């Protein structure tokens, strides 16, 4: 009987997971190094420590009946070891390990016959050992000039990605020396970026949320729109690919399958093995939020309906920097808008940091996204 | 600029107010004497003390920019004094004082021309001093044999109410000696009990939620249904009466106006100057929950839409005693039902205590209430 849930990471995702777990009667403890972590502010217990600290993670596991995470940059070997020692960890730490290396992730998807953008290992063992000389022949000839060098592990919100701009020396400078931690992907001329939030329960049942369109700015998810501005056949294809992808992933929990719609096809871009920014609108828009869904999944409860309550839903992120969370005029302007919902995470407004989001429900994406953008602009006034 | 909210009382209402305040960026502190108060479990700060302790209430007021309450059994004179000393208290403590005495409350409603069940002061000054002898003549002759003796202040969930069963001596025994704190009401043969959750912002704007039907069991609110099983004209009349009643109440916040539908009329039964059990369904059913509405109102923000998302909503209380909150089979049975939402309050399951509620949304009250009752029965299994 699961009563206590441990979450590695106590940021906004851990906070919203905590808020979903409490009404169901669960106690949550998070691992986080920061004082006043967003999840701790809403009543989660906190083990203080780094996400990479084996002892801290073990301490969290000891206190909980099931362990999960809100961020994938954890040492998965620690989790695999804890699982071997009898701890219940969801989803599977082996899945986490497989996903953490984006190159291995892509190879796994490709091996399963799933469509992904063309990608390659870097040639040679370093820029010096022939890498630079071979780059043009082994990378640019097959993939074309539009490529991006990505870090295999540890990348986040676009950090660690380097677009090739025709100057190999500049690329070499930009990526630095982590040669073995890099691979190359073709930059696909996508029309739309998509995401399908998916969940599996402990009995193997899988549900997916309606396909959403994501818009990135400076590599950070900026806005999420449902339904996407897309041929319904492609939206359905994205659902199908999400189900296919879920077959490759073990364990219970929520996953975000990010995709590109490009030239009448859908390609899988990346898998996030956790609740995701592209699912925040589900708090108000869907019968079961992605956060409650994850809690249901990892605790062995049945999954809830993913049906959407309104024809359209739009989520827009609030980034730190110019935003004052509690500016009276800005708040008023937002809260007078119809079916508009404000979520602050209790984080300081450091520039570029995700400190909150706004969700607008409505009849059309056009109106909802106009209101969402108006709302965000008002907060910055 | 309001940033910190103080709530007198840290039970389930304070808990749900806290959960509504956090995403809007507010910090909440509650006054409660209990360790592990439901509101403190979800991140509210806590001042430990009795709700009747002037020093504890003053301490809470010092820590907060605005003070409100989740329970009306506070010494309103303390609040009036704190307001005089410059503290921002919402709604008005004078309104609280006027409402606390149910006899004065009824007189105020009657003086304003609003319909209430017939009521009377008790005759004489005690049973001994002529009260008993005059009861038949001064009470039973004008009001009829179906009357209930009620405590003027401090009653809750039916406690302090005594139905006259024809035996005056038995009545005398039952009510004890608090003669001056009693009055008598006619028991009206209502078809339906109604409630209209209403809110006023600081600028005087008033909104009401759709009229709901409440069903009581053993004097405790058991089930809430929206829309009520009622002539739509009467439902509209209830809305009108709620607006008229709000004119008599000062200050910002949520009020519950409880009514009887009887013989084609609507009578006002009682006003609760706070968020209320008959509004719990608004968390999922309405664009703005009663809890967010109260937070918006007391902090000077604009009120949100009270529009309901689905044609029908039903809320059923979970009472302690036979219910195991985390019984796996029970939880599973509930969570497989469509659009069914479980809320536990983090309270121990003492018999008869409200420890949680279930909300079911749907197309008809018939289906939603059947599912709600099925869900509650499953939790008891």
Q: What share of the residues of chain A does DSSP label as strand, in percent? A: 25-35%
Helix share, percent of chain A: 25-40%
The chain-level mean pLDDT of chain A equals 91
Distance between the termini of chain A: 50 Å
How would a textbook summarize the main sheet of chain A? Answer: 9 strands, antiparallel
Kindly provide the radius of gyration of chain A, computed on alpha-carbon positions and rounded to a whole number of angstroms: 21 Å
Give the overall shape of chain A, derived from the CA principal axes. Answer: globular
Describe the structure.
- The structure is a homodimer of 381-residue chains.
- By secondary structure, the first copy, chain A, is α+β, with helices and mostly antiparallel strands.
- Chain A has 13 helices and 17 strands.
- In chain A, strands 9, 10, 11, 12, 13, 14, 15, 16 and 17 form a nine-stranded antiparallel sheet that branches. In chain A, strands 3-2-1-4 form a four-stranded parallel sheet, with helices on both faces. A four-stranded antiparallel sheet of chain A has the order 5-8-6-7, sandwiched between helices.
- The longest helix of chain A has 17 residues, at 127-143.
- Chain A is globular and about 60 Å long.
- Chain A starts with a strand and ends with a helix.
- The model of chain A has no long low-confidence stretch (mean pLDDT 91).
- The A-B interface holds A 1, 3, 19, 22-25, 40-43, 287, 296, 300-302, 304-305, 307, 309-310, 325-326, 328, 331-332, 335-336, 338-339, 341-344, 346, 356 and B 1, 3, 19, 22-25, 40-43, 287, 296, 300-302, 304-305, 307, 309-310, 325-326, 328, 331-332, 335-336, 338-339, 341-344, 346, 356.
